[in-house]
Amino acid sequence: MSSTIYKIVPATLWQDALKNGEFKGAAIDLTDGFIHFSTAEQAKETAALHFAGQDGLLLVAIDGEKLGEKLVYETSRGGVLFPHLYAPLPLTAVIWEKRLPLDPDGNHIFPELDQ
Questions:
Q1: What is the CATH number of the domain that holds 14?
Q2: 115-to-39, 40, 43, 82, 104 alpha-carbon distances in Å
């Protein structure tokens, strides 16, 4: 199993994180008290459920091993374990960031993900 986890984030919010040196989370993360992530297997469903038709998004790949004990896998949607980070995301854990464009039908086009 890969230690790579993924965050779907508006590009403008990510630009702010790059300026600040860390990502504190999107509005839902701040409300819930942790940063929501997805595994490779969960990312497309997360995009469809929470970001349907939204343009201007990035997919950010993170090395989960660099997050230590603050990264916890907890039961969420459908009883499946999802990665949650109970701390700001340090940019040193970021592997890459890529645009998440829409196809003509409004579905996100994903790059190849590390399974």
A1: 3.20.170.20
A2: 8, 6, 11, 15, 26
pLDDT tens track for 90-104? 999 999 999 999 999
Q: Is 42 helix (H, G, I), strand (E, B) or coil?
A: helix
pLDDT in tens, 10-40: 999 999 999 999 999 999 999 999 999 999 9
Among residues of the chain, what percentage have pLDDT more than 90? 88
Residues in the chain: 115
What is the DSSP annotation of 47-106?
HHHHSTT--SEEEEEEEGGGGGGGEEEEE-GGG-EEEEESSPEEGGGEEEEEE--B-TTS
Phi (first) and psi of residue 50, to 5 degrees: -115, -15
- By CB atoms closer than 10 A (0-12, 13-18, 19+), residue 108 is buried
Total domains in the chain come to 1
